[in-house]
Amino acid sequence: MRRYHINLVRGLLFVTALLAAHVHADICVNDDSGAQLCLTKAAQRIIALSPGATELVYAAGAGDKLVAAVSFSDYPEPAKNLPRVGSYNRFDQEAILALKPDLLIGWLSGNPREQLSQLHSLGLSVYYSELRSFEDVASTLERIGALAGTDSTAKTAAKKFRVGVNDLRTRYQNSAPVTVFQQIWTNPLMTVNNEHIISEATRICGGVNVFGDLPNLTARIDNEAVLAAQPEAIIAGGMGEENRDWLNEWRRFSGLTAVRKNNLFFIPPSTIQRPTPRLLQGTTLLCKHLDTARGRR
Known about the structure:
By secondary structure, the protein is of the alpha/beta class. The protein has 2 domains: 25-161, Nitrogenase molybdenum iron protein domain (Rossmann fold, 3-Layer(aba) Sandwich); 175-295, Nitrogenase molybdenum iron protein domain (Rossmann fold), CATH 3.40.50.1980. Helices cover 41% and strands 18% of the residues. Strands 4-3-7-8 form a 4-stranded parallel β-sheet, sandwiched between helices. α5 packs antiparallel against α6 (151-172) and α6 packs parallel to α11 (279-295). It is globular. Residues 2-23 have low confidence and may be disordered.
C-alpha cells in the first residue's frame, strides 16, 4: 500500500510537471540560419542590428520593445530617437550588453559574424535574419511577432503585404518585358543578380535584370559592362532618399538605350534596398516606371 501511494504521488508530480511545462512552454521559431530559437517568454528588450530589422520590428507591432538600434535606422519616425549601438557592420558589444536585451535581431550576411557569435556565446538570444524574397518579408514579420508576443499585429501586417504583392503580380504578369539595370551603388559601380530581392521586384513588374546571371548576389561591374548590356531602363537610388545624382551621371552616355529614351528612373533607396514591408511601395513605383518605358517605345 505504501508503495502504491508513493507511485501515485510520483505520477501526480509528473503530471503537474507536464502541465507546468505546457503553461511555461518556450516560444520557438526557426530563423534564417536554419536554427531554432526559443524564448521562455515574449521578448521585452529588443535590439535591432540593421536598419531593415528595425523597420520589421516596428511593422510587427513590437516597436515599443526596442531599446536600441544601429545607425541609419530612420524609419518609422520614432526609430530616429532610439539609442545607437554602433553600425550594422561594427557594433558596440559593451553597449549592447549594458542594455540587457532579451532578443537581438541580427543580419546574417551584413553583421560581423564574429561579433554575433561572441554575443551568442555570452548567452544572448540572437535571431539571424537573411531575407531573400518577398515571402521572407512576410514570414519574418510573423516570426518576430511570435517572439515579441505581438502575433495579431504581425500577422495582419504580413497578410496585407502578401495581398499587395499578389495584386502587383497579377496586374503585371502579362506585361511586355523591359530590360533593366539595377544600380545599388556608384563607387564602385554595383548591381545585383537574379537571387537578390530587388530582382524579384523587377520580375514582378515584368522587368528583366540584364546582370541577373552574375554569380554573386551583389557584384561590382563597370560602365563598359552596362554599355554592352544596353538596358532599356536604368533604376537607381542615391546617397539619400531624394538624391538623383547617380542617374545624372549616365546622361553623358548618349549611346545607351536607357539614356536615349530618357528611361532613367529614381526610387528612394530605403523602399527598394531594405527587405521590409515598404518594398511594396518601392515595387509599385518600379512597376510604374517600367510602364513609362513601355510607353516610350
